[in-house]
Amino acid sequence: MDHVVRHSWIIQLCIIVMTLVVACATVPHSGRKQLNFMPDKDLDALGARAYSELLVREPSCEDQEVKDEINKVANRVSKAAEEMDHPGFDWKVHVVDRDIPNAFCLPGGKIVVYTGILRYVKNEAGLATIMGHEIAHAVARHGGERLSQQLALNGISSVGSEIFRNKDGKLDNKTKVAIGALGLGATIGVLLPYSRTHEMEADRIGQLYMAKAGYDPSEAIHLWERMASIDKHPIPVWLSTHPTDQERLRNLKELLPEATKIYDKATIKYGLGEPI
Ligand SMILES: [Zn+2]
Asked: How far is Cα 102 from Cα 236, in angstroms, rounded to an integer?
């Protein structure tokens, strides 16, 4: 009996080790190894599905000028991400007319910006900082990594495209885990924070993307300084789990020379761009 138990335990361990070996991916620019057993196409399908649900649920911005401005910056930064890291996303941008400082990029390149974020950005380069950061989360597959961790913790081995398909319209636990992991928590009340590692990584990669897009990467530091100076009560949802201001600024200052090299080589330079 003991013999059998020991054997099944060893087999289980082997399966776990093999899964970890197979499921390890490398994050661009940071070189960090990540555990991610979510296939990219499944993750992108989840992102697309969540995006179309959001389009129905959230009020669209009707101000064409605002939409054009956000689209312009988002398109430049996503193009830079494609040129640098080739995620091959089907990019889409949606602007939600709500006065909350929120923005995210779902797996597969579905960018959502809330009009409430605009009061903090000051100029196109400030907006490009936020776009770069959110796009970096998607390209670095932080959602897949977080989902893998959460599913493993919850003992769920696969989700595939079955997620969201509840006949009674209610969310089951598996779906809640997935939605939280994808960063949609703010809109459905299940918030699963990105880790510090993810945040610092997104700052780093995002700064490279904004520089490649032709925006002055030193503005990333100024944007976060502006953020640091605002009264954080209540803390904006998308900021609440981020690293401390000092940590973030130190990180961005350290990375500035690398981003500046990329900016110097950019074909078109917009500097700070238009004021917003
Ligand atoms: Zn973030």
From this structure: 7
Surface-to-core class of residue 179, CB atoms within 10 Å of its CB (0-12 exposed, 13-18 middle, 19+ buried): buried
Distances (CA, A) of 120 to 8, 71, 72, 184, 224: 56, 17, 18, 21, 9
CA distance 117 to 61: 13
Question: Hey, where are the domains in the chain?
Answer: 33-265
Q: How far is the CA of 165 from the centre of ligand 1 (A)?
A: 28
Q: What is the pTM of this model?
A: 0.80
* 134 part of the active site: yes
Read off the pLDDT of residues 28-54 as tens digits, 9 standing for 90 and up. 888 888 878 778 888 888 888 888 888
Please choose, from the candidates 272, 270, 225, the residue with its C-alpha nearest in 3D space to the C-alpha of residue 250: 225
CB under 5 Å of ion ligand 1: residues:
199, 202
Among residues 69, 124, 134, 145, the one annotated as catalytic is 134
At 270 the pLDDT is 97
